[in-house]
Amino acid sequence: MAAGARSVFSAPYEPYLFDVTYIPPQAETFEKLLNEKGDTIAALILEPLVQGAGGMKMYSAETLKNLASLCKQHGVLLIADEVMTGFGRTGTFFACEQASIAPDLMCLSKGLTGGFLPMGLTLASQTIYGSFYAPDRARTFFHSSSFTGNALSCAAALASLKLWEEEPVLERIQAIEQSHQKAAEIFRKDKYVQDVRVKGSILALDISTPEAGYLSNLGTVLTPFYLENGVLLRPLGNCVYVLPPYCITHEELERIYNVIRRSLDYIRHAGSQQNDGSQRARLSGPAHC
Q1: pLDDT at site 271
Q2: Buried/exposed code over 177-189 (b: 16+ C-beta within 10 A; e: otherwise)
């Protein structure tokens, strides 16, 4: 919690959190920080290419590669959180592949079991692993979990990984990305939409609103609308995003895009009713289209 951005979720625990320096995904900013107080920096923790809960913010593979290079130059560990980006989400098995880097630590979950059962996995470099491997048991990394090696979750993970070997998963992801790109061009023409972006199987867009960010009430307005129209989406405030299963069809994607377009008309219409003083729109519930 301390490593993540301070927010309403962490506010009650603020007195117990250790200090962390936050930077945007920019190599120049990181290099300046390293030059100023590199001796005090233990690690750089990041979500490669896409910052998920932060609003599906995306940055380039070149930036990721430069950040990793700076870590090596200054002896700083690179910790890649691929819980969301791993297992194909960004178009490659791991997002780090697109920058041709291998982090010191990589955190995995979600896609490991196809989201079917909870399971986490932390990969470590040989150097880090070796620091705990010794005849002296006092050097053992004892912080394991009661559920380590959960047989049912492991079976689900093996089944999910087997699909990667037997089925054309990456080809399906490429097809999803192509559909996303076509839809993105249409969304970019809507003046009510900002910053439409696509990365692998991820499509994200921001809806223009005075109350932007995670706590924007648009999420509570749109979620019921999407459910009413047969689509399960979970907006991050004013950020609407699509992370479909890789088995989704083109027709199903088109249905999702269409419902998102209709949701834009819905909130536009609701807002205009409020602004002109006419019949007040019921923003807390779904529309019947």
Answers
A1: 61
A2: bebbeebbeebee
